[in-house]
């Protein structure tokens, strides 16, 4: 917990949310001239590496990429700041849980991710990715952004039922001005595409493969390509062999398997060529399995799974939607969603 008196410029650090090899992430607040408080997230470079210009460039590049985005499925960037030797990014605070937390919680309850809800979340992620991939700059030139780190830790389902893509720290863009290391892997090994794991040139279809991996794992509560070592994981990805989700979990439609098969094709030419195409196929399937689905079910789901916030503790239980899919025990399925560092 950060001390309430710990300040970073105009921001008050409230709580440390996470820490990686490069930066710390804090929940913070700021107060405008009218006395109105706003919660934000601050990503601050670790003090011992703030003197390294390469890491500063990476943070600046992340801000330069993400500040261009204005989409409901992407956490916004508000500010890029420096106080003495502290470099930081100020981002939208999303009150919710990451997919990593959700899957772990479902495992502890011995229940599955409701298929209609999972499809809804995947559709929203795909819409956000399509926006990112097709974004143009002020001169109408394609920015060529690839997230490169679509993974459970970087997808948040908010208590308002919204999906948010976060963390553009290793994103690729045509205009990126920081150092670009040739032949260096970027992202989390278990969610890389085959071409990404080979350090080949990548495009938007790499993120589509990563999304396919994320969906398969959330559906089955198992790991798709993850092995004991990074090298084994990469070899597994490059082989591209996996068991269809319907063979692990009951009542999975064949259309669902077909969507994932296309997203997880080893050859990018055989995948969906735009994330919007994948979203369209999932929308058709969602309407087929639950034509009455409403986005508010996502908010009800996360409240039921994690409990309401303190100021919402008196909400009646009957508002929470029941799982409309078969709930399968998962005691025989191996799972390890240990937080993996982004490299």
List key phrases describing it.
2 domains, six-stranded antiparallel beta sheet, Phosphorylase Kinase, domain 1, Transferase(Phosphotransferase), domain 1
What count of domains describes the coordinates?
Answer: 2
Strand tally:
9
Uncertain parts: 318-338
Oligomer: single chain
Number of helices: 9
Distance between the termini: 26 Å
Return the structural class. Answer: alpha+beta
Could you name the CATH topology of the largest domain? Answer: Transferase(Phosphotransferase), domain 1
Q: Quick one: CATH class of the largest domain?
A: Mainly Alpha
- Widest beta sheet: strand line-up: 1-2-3-4-6-5
User: What is the H-and-E element order?
Assistant: EEEEHEEEHHEEHHHHHH
Shape: globular
- What is the radius of gyration computed over CA atoms, rounded to a whole number of angstroms? 20 Å
Question: What percent of residues are in strands?
Answer: 15-25%
**CATH architecture descriptor text of the largest domain:** Orthogonal Bundle
* Largest sheet data: 6 strands, antiparallel
Helix content: 25-40%
SSE order and pairing:
Blueprint: E1 7-8, E2 11-19, E3 23-31, E4 37-45, H1 53-66, E5 77-83, E6 86-92, E7 96-98, H2 99-109, H3 115-134, E8 155-158, E9 163-165, H4 194-197, H5 204-220, H6 230-239, H7 254-263, H8 275-289, H9 296-306
Antiparallel strand pairs: 1-2, 2-3, 3-4, 4-6, 5-6, 7-8, 8-9
Helix pairs in contact: 3-5, 3-8, 5-7, 7-8
